[in-house]
Design a protein that fits this description.
286 residues; 29% strand; FAD/NAD(P)-binding domain; binds flavin-adenine dinucleotide
Amino acid sequence: MMENVDIAIIGCGPAGLSAAINVKARNRSLLLIGPQLCSSSLHKAHRINNYLGIPEMPGEDLRKAFLNHAKDMGVEVTQLSVAGIYPVGDVFQLQIQDDFIEAKAVVLTTGVVSTHHLPGEEAFTGKGVSYCATCDALFYRGKTIAVIAEAEEHEDEAIFLAEVVEKMFFLPKYEVSRKFPDNVEVISDRVKGFRGGERLETISLAERGELPVDGVFILKAQMPMSQLVPGLELENKHVRVNLEMATNVTGVYAAGDVAGRPYQVAKAVGQGQQAALSAVTYIDKV
Ligand SMILES: Cc1cc2nc3c(=O)[nH]c(=O)nc-3n(C[C@H](O)[C@H](O)[C@H](O)COP(=O)(O)OP(=O)(O)OC[C@H]3O[C@@H](n4cnc5c(N)ncnc54)[C@H](O)[C@@H]3O)c2cc1C
């Protein structure tokens, strides 16, 4: 059972870590959620040449330096995935696997959401395609589903789904080492897309062909923002923010790539700081 916090920060790249150290400096409690690498963008960047004061810095070195700085200030990264963020009165409830945690304010620093969709994915979203195991599992009680998992961290969600459904095809995008329950068939194949009529009927695989399913859960590290925070206003696929990094949802702030171009480390760090300070000011007023 996790403790409730003042500020929850979702994503631990440069924007999230910058927000985290500033929340920490203001002596407020925080939850920082993100994957082990924290920023796969920085990890991939060969050299960062335009971060002031430290030219020619390999992206990986900068990533480690940011993480070490945060760690030295007592910031911990929690490796869990958030399925939804819902305002309830003056606080937010964050749905984390089968648990909820409360935060007074939220800072979104999730980077750029991949716009790549499989054929049929958008057409069947809400009609058989879901991104949230905890939200939609019960619709599939006793049915057959497929689960596409991007990373090992999604296995707990898949196991939870397996307890509800009759049969699951588990399609990992990584090498699986864990043993799954008997009703789960792990398949190494490439998903080509989804087919159906009014609702999803089959998932198309490169080698196995069409598998009839009642539903598909796509467990992604980066969820579409509008799924994560219902009612969040977007502008050209980025979260719309003002100069305080406030979104249209009171108490929710956004910073870094998720809040728009240019996709740059210096901007992410600056916006992360602004978002944190705005969030602290907000919770002091509520
Ligand atoms: C190859 C390459 C070269 C680059 N070169 C430069 C350069 O030279 N100069 C420069 O300034 N910038 C450069 N960039 C861009 C820079 O890396 C990004 O602008 C910067 O990392 C953005 O920081 P961020 O914190 O907004 O997002 P990210 O660094 O993308 O971090 C966001 C994190 O949030 C996580 N996340 C997403 N959704 C969730 C969720 N639901 N729950 C928990 N965590 C979540 C993501 O997995 C990710 O780890 C480069 C990027 C790449 C890929």
